[in-house]
Design a protein that fits this description.
Layout (H helix, E strand, L loop, with lengths): L1 H11 L7 E7 L6 E2 L7 H9 L5 E2 H11 L4 E3 L7 H15 L4 E5 L3 H25 L9 E3 L9 H7 L2 E4 L1 H8 L7 H5 L1 E6 L7 H20 L5 E5 L6 H9 L4 E3 L9 E6 L3 E3 L4 E2 L2 H14 L4 E5 L2 H12 L18 E4 L5 H13 L4 E4 L14 E5 L5 H8 L9 E6 L4 H8 L1 H6 L12 H14 L2 E2 L9 H13 L3 E4 L2 E4 L19 E6 L5 E7 L1 H7 L5 E4 L2 E9 L4 E6 L4 E22 L2 E21 L5 E6 L5 E12 L1 H9 L14 H11 L17 E4 L9 H4 L5 E4 L1 H10 L5 H17 L6 E6 L10 E6 L7 H7 L1 H14 L21 H11 L3
Parallel strand pairs: 4-9, 4-10, 5-7, 5-8, 6-7, 8-9, 11-18, 14-16, 14-17, 15-16, 17-18, 22-26
Antiparallel strand pairs: 1-11, 2-3, 12-13, 19-21, 20-21, 22-23, 24-25, 25-26, 27-28, 28-29, 28-30, 30-34, 31-32, 33-34
Helix pairs in contact: 2-5, 3-4, 9-17, 11-12, 24-26, 24-27, 26-27
């Protein structure tokens, strides 16, 4: 029991035990098994027995019973609980009994479709000879194929004719199948099942688009006389039944009582030790995550390490693979250790398939991954999961932790808290995490702009009969939209039917997901001067991941970026030995392009209009491996990334700010350090020899910052605050990290936090669909102190306009939420936490909301 002995060691280890702030153990759970149902076709039953399956879990039998009764179902059970088998059984049985029946499986990613094709092919390889023998026929087939953007054109006609199970994704259904349904007439005529896997990913704007694609799918199927049955599968979320019924607009039976076996599950929260008590700095969560992962590796416990970003994946991977202080071998284009691998977007598909195979077979012992491995790709059951940093939601944390667990064997998950206020709040209040329900997934398929876009697509696919509805929307409502398209010369009414009139093919111009520029190919030159592709980067990330001079990390190898050609979408790399990695510096600015509406409201002015959000990579830092010492900063001249969108902002009135200031509820004013501050600051820098006292970086062209160990605002006198013993010299980067620890969240920041959480509930969108920005002082762009909420989608999608309209209700609900929260000074459920040694700003936020809710 290597894991059990390691857990026992961690309890006693003086380097680990004092930092384990929480340890929750879920006892083993025996399987709730049921015999095979009497109506299970013999070939399917024998296939299961040949695969070593002699009984079903209770939830699998429940799924079979309700699916065979013709009901739509959603399975919302734990990771590795056998959901795939639960939805494959009724599909296989029906297709076996009806040789013309077809099924469509939808997955959110191509990788998942590939993974499921492999699993289905294995099952069919056992099923096929049994059917041939028992039915005494050689003509039976259950051809299964993937139809997505990577499917070769020459293979597509045969696939459309012959495939009985088609695996695809919503994007391909939207652009490549529904608009060309006449080529799929036989498939749609006999469409019996639609399986939607990883349903929890279909939320927010993306989910609202997908719900409309499902409306179009049902409409086309109905045209060919089919009414498919839906089977959905989801990770644990707060509202699986509600989400499923919003997506398919039909009653759905929820199956959530998990009958699968589970061994003991340990969930640990680990808070890295403090390394500098005077500054409150803690040891790096990445380095501590590496140490714990090495313990697991040394005990031969197969594990996954989840990191928050692609760069963190590569840094952790480099530390784990290298006994050579992060150095990589020159001109080596293969992993240094096949036992330890990385997994993230940007790796070539062949690399990812090889890593998945290695995990299943046990040849890969440790994998370092982004949330790309959260989804249900089959990687077998692992012994442990390490989460380096809280992934942002309870649902994601549970999904990642659920990757650990193999039957009745013991498994562990460790959340290594970062220095961020949210992580530190959870480390100090672990009950918040353990007792909180998973988040809800919200969609709004009737959103005006989204609905209109899909009505265009639906009309292109089939003309609308006068009075015809669309999904759950009545013909009367749809008629209004069609009249708009008619007046816009996009539709033509003839013989009581609305026909598509415009020249363009509407689906091609509608992205279901947020648009990202074309990807960038990463090339190195081999010894014989041939270009070799080592990976890819999405266009949006290329400017900060592969800018000129960057050290790009790929499978723990260092590549120097010689050039980034944005016109050709190629980055030119060369392998190097490097004692440092690079860290981009980015700036974001929000500008008003035009103001469409404004109105006076209690305590402020609300406005709505067009905004431009500009993000630019301005420079990069070189940091030494392990010590993170700042080796210097180099400027960059890269084009900015502009998001033109719409936003809603609240600008506090001068009177409100004055009243808050008089009441001691306003901390957004710049600090006045006193008349002699510049001289005191110079003395502190000179005392510290113009060197950062954390990372050792020496001043260059930019002067270092001087930081107050005890926050300036904690003193009543600037003389006391500015005593030399309370001052320390820090480089800009280290200063930012220290400030996060002692952060005093202002009332405005708290207001932005609570509105950013509340607004999606009012709009039925996802938190990622909105951006927030705070201007804490008077400024040229927004005038008075302001908070901004904007659509995080090019051109906007109407969210901010709706917020402008429901401003009063939003303020009232925000005040109710803050006042009802039982926390003392801010938490993730209301205004957000302050830094570990800072203040949460709850009182300030409450006072601001009282002013904004008057009347």
């Amino acid at each position: 029991m290597p894991l059990a002995s390691l857990l026992d060691f961690w309890k006693r280890d003086p380097e680990t035990a004092p930092n384990l702030v929480a340890w929750q153990t879920l006892p083993a759970r025996p399987a709730q098994t049921r015999p095979f149902p009497d109506d299970l076709p013999a070939p399917v039953k024998q296939t299961l027995i040949a695969s070593g399956i002699h009984t079903l879990y209770s939830h699998q039998l429940e799924a079979w019973t309700h699916a065979r009764a013709g009901e739509n179902i959603i399975l919302s059970t734990g990771t590795a609980s056998g959901k795939t088998l639960a939805y494959n059984m009724p599909v296989f049985a029906s297709l076996l009994q009806d040789p013309s029946a077809r099924a469509l499986y939808l997955f959110p990613t191509k990788a998942l479709a590939q993974d499921q094709l492999s699993a289905i092919s294995n099952q069919l390889s056992v099923l096929r000879p049994l059917v041939t023998d028992q039915l005494n026929t050689d003509h039976w087939s259950l051809n299964t194929a993937i139809y997505d953007g990577d499917t070769p054109q020459k293979d597509r006609p045969a696939l459309r004719r012959n495939a009985r199970i088609v695996l695809s994704n919503p994007d391909m259904l939207h652009t490549g199948i529904l608009p060309h349904h006449t080529s799929w007439s036989d498939f749609f005529t006999h469409l019996r099942f639609v399986v939607i896997d990883e349903t929890h990913t279909y939320r927010g704007v993306f989910g609202s688009h997908v719900a409309n694609v499902i409306r179009r799918l049902k409409r086309v199927a109905n045209f060919y006389g089919a009414k498919p049955q839906f089977i959905l599968a989801s990770a644990t979320i707060g509202n699986p039944k509600e989400l499923a019924e919003h997506l398919i607009e039909e009653p759905v039976h929820l199956i959530e009582d998990d009958g699968s076996a589970r061994g003991p599950r340990h969930f640990l929260i680990y808070n890295p030790p403090i390394t500098d008590p005077s500054l409150g700095l803690r040891k790096s969560s990445l380095l501590e995550g590496v140490r714990l992962a090495q313990d697991l590796l040394n005990q031969d416990v197969q594990s996954v390490v989840f990191a928050r970003s692609r760069r963190s994946v590569e840094i952790i991977l480099t530390y784990l693979q290298g006994g050579e202080r992060g150095e990589t071998k020159k001109d080596v284009l293969f992993p240094l250790s096949s036992l330890i691998r990385g997994y993230r977007s940007g790796y070539l598909p062949t690399q990812r398939r090889a890593i998945e195979k290695g995990l299943r077979e046990g040849t890969v012992k440790t994998v370092v991954a982004t949330n790309a491995l959260e989804l249900g790709i089959d990687i077998g059951g692992l012994g442990a999961a390490i989460l380096v940093g809280y992934p942002g939601t309870v649902a994601s944390a549970r999904q990642q932790a659920g990757r650990a667990g193999r039957g009745l064997e013991s498994a562990a998950a460790v959340l290594v808290a970062s220095a961020s206020p949210l992580d530190q709040f959870l480390a100090h209040h672990p009950e918040y995490f353990f007792e909180r329900s998973p988040e809800q997934a919200l969609v709004n398929p009737d959103h005006l702009l989204i609905l209109l876009e899909h009505l265009r697509c639906a009309m292109f696919e089939l003309p609308f009969q006068k009075g015809e509805g669309f999904g759950a929307l009545s013909g009367e409502i749809i008629e209004e939209y069609l009249h708009f398209l008619l007046s816009n010369n996009e539709a033509h009414l003839s013989n009581e039917k609305y026909y598509w009139m415009a020249d363009q093919y509407p689906a091609a111009n509608i992205s279901l997901r947020s648009a990202s520029p074309q990807g960038v190919v990463l090339q190195v030159t081999t010894e014989d001067s041939r270009p070799l592709t080592v990976g890819t980067v999405d266009g949006e990330s290329a400017l900060w991941m592969v800018h000129p001079g960057a050290v790009y990390l790929h499978e723990a190898q260092s590549f120097f970026v010689k050039d980034l050609n944005l016109e050709e979408h190629v980055a030119y790399l060369k392998p190097i030995e490097s004692d440092y990695y690079t860290e981009p510096l980015r700036s974001t600015e929000v500008a008003i392009l035009s103001e469409a509406a404004r109105a006076a409201v209690p305590g402020a002015e609300k406005k709505w209009g067009e905004l431009q959000v500009t993000t630019q990579v301005t420079a990069f830092l070189k940091r030494r491996w392990y010590t993170h010492e700042n080796l210097g900063q180099e400027p960059l001249d890269l084009p900015p990334t502009d998001l033109q969108t719409t936003g809603y902002w609240i600008s506090l009135s001068e009177e409100t700010v004055a009243r808050l200031r008089a009441a001691g509820a306003w901390s957004s004013d710049p600090n006045d350090y006193g008349p002699g501050w510049s001289k005191v600051r110079d003395r502190a820098r000179a005392r510290d020899k113009y060197t950062c006292q954390v990372c050792g970086a020496v001043e260059t062209t930019r002067q270092h910052d001087v930081h107050h160990k005890t926050p300036f605002r904690a003193f009543t006198s600037f003389i006391e605050a500015n005593r030399l013993e309370n001052l320390i010299t820090l480089c800009h980067s280290c200063h930012r990290k220290v400030e996060e620890n002692v952060r005093i969240r202002s009332g405005l920041s708290g207001l932005a936090y609570v509105l950013g959480d509340l607004a999606p509930l009012s709009l039925m969108c996802d938190t990622g669909d909105l951006g927030t920005h705070v201007e804490p002082v008077e400024n040229q762009i927004f005038g008075q102190p302001s908070i901004v909420l904007y659509d995080a989608i090019p051109a906007g999608i109407g969210f901010s306009q709706k917020l402008f309209e429901i401003h009063a209700e939003l303020m009232r609900r925000a005040l109710e939420l803050v006042e009802a929260c039982a926390c003392a000074d801010g938490c993730p459920s209301c205004v957000g936490p302050g830094g570990e040694n800072g203040y949460g700003g709850k009182q300030e936020t409450r006072e601001i909301l009282k002013h904004l809710s008057e009347g």
